[in-house]
């Protein structure tokens, strides 16, 4: 079978006709639902390659509201369908819709728009992954270039001086990449994101960063708190014998988190590098939820 599609349509006859047409083109119809709530659950369960979303639906939410909820946990491409003569295009743009079709829709128009939507989505995703991969290569080159300087035993004075240099070089060389890859460089779009969306962007970036350097990283969530855990330091087997490496990781995490400009959250070092199984932990929590 071909790509998996989810049809979200409240008119039963229209949905059935569309399903028959799409199946004749070898598409795999994963499900047909008539409400926004049903669409959200189906995306979680079936992970379709494309959603055909009618704007007017049964239930309390319309197709655009459903798409907005779906965007909180999935980047599945969405192609809108509507019988409305005039629509608020801005609402569709805010959900990153791939476009919209106005009923009645010809078979040729439907087929071409589905093909284009899936192709553009996959091409954009591949391009983004390539950019991220190349950027992470640059990150590794940068980090490896400073490791020799950091690997020696340092006095407290020298440690502070080199950490200061590290902060400045990291800011100069990595911040532009960070702002581009996280989307913060587009301030208007970034400010419209929810706090959770901003945090997810950060965790995705910082995870890729450390994995590329050979670390193991886990992100745990508990209510208003998130925990970043770094294991298997790729710079030093016994980081409890040379805590300078831990200070470097701490600098990276705190510095990049500041670049996110999320003032509602605070980051705290919870590491226990003196234990028999040292690991670096950083707790990110809402300032108002931090116990005094």
Distinct helical segment count: 9
Spans of at least 5 consecutive residues whose pLDDT stays below 50 are none
Alpha-carbon Rg, integer: 24 Å
Question: Separation of termini?
Answer: 58 Å
Q: How much helix, percentage-wise, in residues?
A: 40-55%
CATH architectural type of the largest domain: 2-Layer Sandwich
Number of domains: 2
Q: How many β strands by DSSP? A: 9
Detail the topology: elements first, then pairings.
Layout: E1 4-8, H1 12-24, E2 28-33, H2 36-46, E3 50-54, H3 63-70, E4 78-82, H4 89-94, E5 100-102, H5 107-150, H6 156-182, H7 187-191, H8 195-212, E6 216-222, E7 225-231, H9 244-259, E8 265-269, E9 280-286
Parallel strand pairs: 1-2, 1-3, 3-4, 4-5
Antiparallel strand pairs: 6-7, 7-9, 8-9
What can you see in these coordinates?
With 292 residues, the protein is of the alpha/beta class. The chain folds into two domains: 117 residues, Rossmann fold, CATH 3.40.50; 139 residues, Muramoyl-pentapeptide Carboxypeptidase, domain 2 (2-Layer Sandwich). Helix 2 runs parallel beside helix 3 and helix 6 runs parallel beside helix 9. The termini are far apart.
């Amino acid at each position: 079978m071909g790509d998996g599609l989810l049809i979200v349509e409240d008119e039963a006859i229209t949905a059935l006709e569309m399903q028959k047409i799409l199946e004749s083109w070898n598409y795999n119809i994963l499900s047909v639902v008539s409400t926004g709530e049903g669409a959200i659950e189906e995306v979680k369960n079936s992970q379709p390659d494309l959603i055909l979303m009618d704007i007017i639906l049964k239930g309390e939410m319309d197709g655009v509201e459903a798409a907005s909820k779906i965007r909180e946990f999935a980047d599945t491409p969405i192609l809108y369908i509507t019988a409305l003569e005039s629509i608020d295009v801005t609402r569709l743009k805010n959900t990153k819709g791939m476009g919209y079709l106005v009923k009645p829709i010809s078979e040729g128009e439907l087929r071409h728009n589905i093909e284009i939507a899936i192709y553009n989505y996959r091409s954009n995703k591949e391009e983004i992954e390539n950019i991220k991969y190349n950027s992470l290569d640059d990150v590794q080159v940068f980090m490896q270039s400073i490791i020799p300087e950091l690997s020696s035993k340092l006095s407290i004075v020298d440690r502070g001086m080199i950490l200061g240099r590290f902060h400045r070089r990291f800011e100069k060389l990595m911040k532009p990449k960070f702002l581009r890859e996280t989307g913060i460089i587009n301030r208007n779009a970034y400010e419209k994101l929810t706090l959770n969306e901003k945090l997810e962007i950060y965790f995705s970036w910082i995870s890729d960063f450390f994995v590329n350097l050979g670390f193991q990283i886990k992100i745990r969530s508990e209510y208003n708190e998130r925990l970043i855990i770094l294991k298997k330091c790729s710079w030093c087997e016994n980081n409890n014998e040379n805590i300078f490496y831990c200070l470097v990781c701490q600098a990276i995490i705190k510095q990049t988190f500041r670049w996110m400009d999320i003032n509602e959250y605070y980051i705290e070092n919870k590491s226990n590098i003196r234990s028999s199984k040292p690991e670096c932990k950083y707790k990110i929590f809402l300032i108002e939820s931090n116990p005094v």
